[in-house]
Amino acid sequence: MSALVVTAADEPYAALAGDLIASLAEHRQTLSLHVAVLDLGLEAASREALASGVDHLVTPKWMFKPHAKFDADPKYLARAARPFLPELVPGYATYIWLDADIWVQHRLGLEWLLDASRGVDLAAVPTMHRSYSFSQRDMGWLHKRYAMAFGDALANELIRQPYFNSGVMAARAGSTLWRAFADRFQRALDRWNGNFLSDQAVLNAVIAMDDLRVNRLPARANWLCHLAPPLWNENAKALVEPAMPFDPLLIVHNTYDDKRKERSIRTLTGQQRTTQLTRSSIQRLAHSESQ
Amino acid sequence: MRFLVVTGADEAYASYASDLITSLEHGRSLGFDLGLLDYGLAATTRESLARRVSAVVAPPWPYRPKPPFDTQIQSRAFATRPFLPDYFPGYDGYAWIDADSLVQDVRAIVILKAAASRGMAGVVPTVDRSYLHTESSRKWVLERYRMAFDEDVAQRLMTVPYIASGVVSAAANSPLWRLWRERFQQSLEHWRGERLCDQSILNHVVYLEKLPHHRLPSFCNWISHLAPPMADIANGALVEPSYPRAPIWIVANSFNDKDSLRTLMRTDGRGTIQCALTLRSARNAIIEARKAT
Which ipTM score applies to this complex? Predict the structure, then answer.
């Protein structure tokens, strides 16, 4: 049985999802990967364009009990649908979730996710790297999400644990993750105190409290660019970690609020390049330097 | 680039230093020399180790008199690290590796050397997805900051990842050496506590004095008590306990009792091995496990 990569997009994220799907294309046959997109409000043209590059295009429905605040707005489904991937698109042995603002730079990232999900409940990436720097704003952001889901007392405990970013994760279809994730999500929804949803807060609570067996992957399998902008290796034409030995990033997560903003990134030889951190822009940069 | 790797030992640590030197010897073709600081070796031990390194120096207490530290072997070991270019002049770069460390992969020396070029330093923050920082380990760090600095500085340093000083490299012309020495002397003037700690000072220099530095990966100084390595029997190595279980380049035997047997999980799922985190013990346990397999 093969594996399924799932992402989700509404219209503003359609181009990013297209970039992600393009970054998967060359690995799909080798790794027996199928791809699904959850349609959270795509226009007809985008839907058609994305459908041609994937195996499934699914319009998910709210899977929890009715919720006064969240169940009517499709944008919340990107977060609320994640515990239900094997139900939304059944028939695969392994499910990999990748946020639409992610792209795969190196096949090894996918190989790790597939391999690491065997024999455990979850393969995911803790937000931990010697280059990452966390501002008060970052920590406040995190605490707020925990508090919305679980209240201040539990938030104060959870914030002391290493934080997993839910933008990249993999689990077997039969993993206990899905049930634990859905159950804890429902319990959190029943007392949710905030105006937006955070699946990450719930996922981290599940990891901390439900005794899951988790394989923790290195940061370069889900590089959070806003915590440490990558460097540009001019020779390899690739984004790399901003610390020795400058290992190549495997999966790049464009975590800036403004995904399309031009960023100034340093090269390994100390020069500057200006580029968006989308796959298309990085490919253009690589192409221009190959001329 | 002339590069020197230095360690130090008294008689109690001589066998660890010998192991460390053994672990470095097969990488000598990479082009580095070895130096040894003698903190109180017996004459025969000193003679035997001296044959295997380029130079041996017995450093005196390097600061203004400071009882009781200036007569303690352990304190002298901490206090003398900022003086490597003075003890062993003529090199372009230096690395310090604690005697209770084991170099499993000499690529560690390559990266330490690279980090110590162009006036830079290489340090290893204790950041890894496998490490378990407990209340007790955080308290240990805070206590050491409080010994050297006032409460405000101690609390500021607690907000950044702690750098262990067991593996450090720097160019001869890095500001590290001067800053480390000066801050050490200043801190000694008002030291609070019964033991010395060079790590507190190093962290101050790196983070609060903006030392130009490279942050090296945790596998360049694996703090074993924060996350015991796993044993990769097929490849004959101690490896990181988190996926993908990459080889550890330098293993720091950071347990208080260096010779106690530890139970290490095998990567092949066939149970555990028991060994101390010393070169001989780990190597023997892996060989025995391989025979049994």
Answer: 0.93
